[in-house]
Amino acid sequence: MYYQKTKHKNHLVIRLQNITIGSKARLLMRVYMTKQNIHLKTAVIFLDIGWRVSIPLVIFVILGSILDNKFATKPLFIIIGIILSIFVTTWTFYRLYKQITKEKD
């Protein structure tokens, strides 16, 4: 990972090269997450948690609804979709936990 810090009109400018988009976002988040903007960090964390919960839930419930309409088994596939979304969300939170604990080491 390559990055260069320069001062430009009292602002920290970071030039990133050869870094994936996710790495850029994490690096920029670390740079901007200082004590002055702790509220922004909290908002980013809660937004991330919200997306990690809502996306699998919406996708699996929509797929369950489509399968229920196709096979005429109204609540069955929606309930299966909700259960699958709980497993997927738990798995993504586990991966996030492992990533956070790995960064602290």
Q: Any overview of this molecule?
A:
The chain is of the alpha+beta class and 105 residues long. It folds into 2 domains: 1-32, no CATH class; 37-105, no CATH class. It contains 3 helices and 2 strands. The longest helix has 34 residues, at 38-71.
Strand order of the largest sheet: 1-2
Terminus-to-terminus distance: 19 Å
Count of separate DSSP helical elements: 3
| Total beta strands | 2
Q: Report mean pLDDT, rounded to a whole number.
A: 76
What overall geometry do the principal axes of the alpha carbons give? elongated
Query: Per DSSP, what share of the residues sits in E-state strands of 2 or more residues?
Result: 5-15%
Can I get a quick summary?
This protein has 105 residues and is of the alpha+beta class. The chain is 71% helix and 13% strand. The two termini are 19 Å apart.
Short descriptors:
105 residues; alpha+beta; 2 domains; two-stranded antiparallel sheet; 3 helices; 2 strands; 71% helix; disordered N terminus
Write the layout of secondary structure elements.
Blueprint: E1 2-8, E2 11-17, H1 21-32, H2 38-71, H3 76-104
Antiparallel strand pairs: 1-2
Helix pairs in contact: 2-3
